[in-house]
Amino acid sequence: MQRSNLYLMFRVAAATLLATAATGALSMSRPPPQDFPQASVDYFAGMDDGIALKPDEVRGRNSWLMWTAGNEGFWDLLARRSFGAFDLLKVLDSRNRATRFAYYGVMNEPGFKAASAPDQFGLWLDVPDGTQDPAYAPQYRENFPKDDFLRTYGRASGIVGLRLYPNPDFDEAAKKKWDAAIKKSADAFYTDKDFYSKEGLVRPYRVGMACGFCHVGPHPLHPPADPENPQWQNLSSNIGAQYLKPARVFVLPDQENNFLFQVVNSMPPGTIDTSALASDNINNPRTMNAIYQVGPRIAAAAEEALSGGNLDLPGTSATMKVPHVLKDGADSVGILGALTRVYVSIGAAYEEWLKHFNLLVGGKGQTPFPVAAARKNSAYFGATVDRMPNVASFFVTVSKPHPLAKAPGGERYLQDSAATVERGQQLFAENCAACHVSYNKMPQPPPGVERDTKAWDDWTRGGDFKSKMVALVRAPDFLNNNFLSTDRRIPVSRVGSNACASLASNAVRGHIWDNFSSDTYKNLPAAGTIGVADPFTGEQRPYVLPGGGRGYLRVPSLVSLWASAPYLHNNSVGLFSGDPSVAGRMAAFQDGIEKMLWPDKRRGMGSIYRTTALSWLTLDKSYLPGPLFAALKTKFGVPGDDHVIRLGPIPKGTPVNLLANIDLEYSLDPEKLADFAGLAIKLNAALSDMRDLDDAAAAARFKELVPALLKVSKCPDFVTDRGHLFGTQLSDDDKRALIAWLKRL
User: Fold this and answer.
1) What whole-number distance in Å separates Cα of residue 13 and Cα of residue 617?
2) Strand, coil or helix: what is 161?
């Protein structure tokens, strides 16, 4: 029982969804298997610099922005089981349209306006104001029936990437309950907690999520005059949702004392933990990075070995060149497979997906999501696979750089002297190019020197490479078809960055994304030992990195670096301005790039994610087996509420990842079991003590648990803005010259 107590206490999902999810999902209503036609009308012609698209590319962009692959059922499932903590339908509240970008960081969809009254269900939803979405437009232009469009894509919601569908479970009985609540209070869904927090509440609509929700953002070259009121020409499909605020989208307001909020709140704007749903028990938010130069990236990809479930994905073969997708380069089965996995990770084929892990909680051994079974049994997954060639074609065309020189007013930031820029080019060639240039833009290596070997690394550090590289960087066509990255996986022990993203385990052999990672990835050797800091004292201790794919970070692209601050894989270095104007982006660039090159300006220990208030993990009895709830209620019950227990208190200032990174995967290893047993004993004693202590004393008591917590941590690396010290040895003048060139990339 002690381990069950721990298991429940320290994962984000325990506060919302403890995981009857798999069986619950299977009972959800789904449309029968059938064709899902691809939309061919160019509804978003103004986007992406007005680029001309071929018909297949138009279909690809439509899928990126409108296809939710049936995941509206998945997100409805989460809302039903969240007890009021999460609900995308509330994010759509039209009364907030005028402040959505500032508050949520989401993009209002052009062609809509705020509602002046609720709909028949008491819901405040944006209303059309010139949209071409087929659900509202006066003329329907597709070559298939409108009913098929609505079944496939739903209707636009007023937020880019979120689509509305009628809820098939909203039958007469559900409608009667809903109507009774809004008759009593017209705003019941938003204000009556007894109503909106009921488990299993059936909502009139489901909200589906397209990939564009996390990838569309303000266009760097055509920024909106008012970010709350963009036009299509102000939006980019590939820049990434750089301003998204996860805690506000995925946890509803006024929950600072909920440890779930504290975990999600640790994710900086513009990041998301891509393993939060299929949890690997590591909290590692990563940037929703821009998608640039897809064609050159594919052309320069590394050859890797694939087998097993990899070969059930479209376009795969036993040996093939694959780009390295995700921060750790784990997605390594080709662009079509990587795009397909994105849809699964947000709920496509969720009935199959949820069989293979404990949703959000983890704590049991994962098994691979089987591509072959999903292709056979899920019409939505099959339709997703069918769409991916068009999506890939779209990105090959649209993923062009956004140079500062073409941005409005950009020239005012490009007044550096020719000598300064030339010096910056030389410094880039000598200090950065070995990692941050595409192979096709590098010099030819000497005979016998193979790419990505020790001999290659030795050559790129020498004078022959550097002198030739200087000439290439100064060539007029240097930036043409240049991904500005080798896309190579680098040991985190060499980069020095926070290790948690590199330690993600979902793609290792036998885990959930096994079918989407190559054998080459799975067979990567251990990357050595790193030093990690005690989150309270800063004392350094060694941590031995595991192998089997973990311990590496992919080299990020520097394309349009000026438009992508803050920096590092977790947005930890630099100012988050929240301002998508050219001036706002350049303020963030200057602050971030200076902190990259002058690391003493970084926050260091101040960058550790910490709780912002005294918090608790509150659990309803329906989350737990009856005997366990009864046993825990004796100690952790809430007076006056027989249905709830609260685990805590968790003191303000607690490092979030001390708890969020506890390795809960079941193991029979005697040493691991002993560590858990020791922690359980100490934890129970500490929780009892802290209930009677003031804040300072409780925090001091909690610190006594740190050694035991570190023993069971899956990633004991807490300082988020550390590492990548390349170039920091340069003189101040040389750093400024290098910056003059970097903003021109």
Assistant:
1) 10
2) coil
CB 160 within 8 Å of CB 146: no
Cα-Cα-Cα-Cα dihedral of 626, 631, 632, 638, to 10°? 80
Three-class SS state of 49: helix
Cα 416 to Cα 348: distance, rounded to the nearest angstrom? 49
Euclidean distance between CA atoms 339 and 63, whole angstroms = 11
Give residue 83's pLDDT. Answer: 76
Residue with tokens 């990633």: 715
672 assigned to some structural domain: no
Q: Would you tell me how many other CB atoms lie within 10 Å of the CB of residue 420?
A: 17
**HEC states along 665-710?**
CCCCCHHHHHHHHHHHHHHHHHHHHHCCCCHHHHHHHHHCCHHHHH
pLDDT at 687: 77
| Overall pTM > 0.90 | yes
222: DSSP letter? S
User: ∠563-578-661 over CA atoms, to 5°?
Assistant: 90
Per-residue pLDDT of 688-732, as tens digits, reads 788 788 888 988 988 998 998 998 899 999 999 999 999 999 999
227 is written with which tokens? 């970010």
The encoded tokens of residue 438 equal: 């595409």
Predicted local distance difference test score (pLDDT) of residue 2: 36
Q: What is the pLDDT of residue 670?
A: 76
Domain annotation covers residue 461: no
Inside any domain, residue 614: no
* Residues ≥6 apart with Cβ < 8 Å to 127: 94, 112, 113, 114, 115, 116
Tell which residue, 396, 388, 399, 398, has the closest CA to residue 315. Answer: 388
Residue 678, classed as helix, strand or coil, is helix
Cα separation, 125 vs 189, whole angstroms = 13
**Distance of alpha carbon 307 from alpha carbon 514, whole angstroms:** 10
Residues near 381 by beta carbon (within 8 Å), at least 6 away in sequence = 69, 344, 348, 349, 352, 374, 375
Q: Provide the pLDDT for residue 619.
A: 64
How many domains is the chain partitioned into structurally? 1
| Three-state secondary-structure class, residue 654 | coil
Query: Can you read off the two tokens belonging to residue 734?
Result: 């040389």
Looking at 307-434, list the stretches that DSSP marks H as alpha helix, in order from N- to C-terminal side.
Answer: 335-345, 350-353, 371-377, 379-398, 418-431
- Give strand pairing partners of 305: 319
Low-confidence ranges of the chain (pLDDT < 50): 1-33, 623
The whole-number pLDDT of residue 22 equals 33
415 has which bridge partners? none
Torsion from C-alpha of 555, 556, 559, 561, nearest 10 degrees:
-130
CB 213 within 8 A of CB 97: no
- Side-chain-side CA neighbours of 65 within 13 Å: the count stands at 33
Angstrom distance (rounded) from CA 330 to CA 344: 15
Domain containing 77: what range?
31-241
Whether 198 is in a domain gets the answer: yes
Give one word for 558, left, alpha or beta, with left for phi > 0 and alpha for psi -120 to 50: alpha
Dist CA 416 CA 196 (whole Å): 58
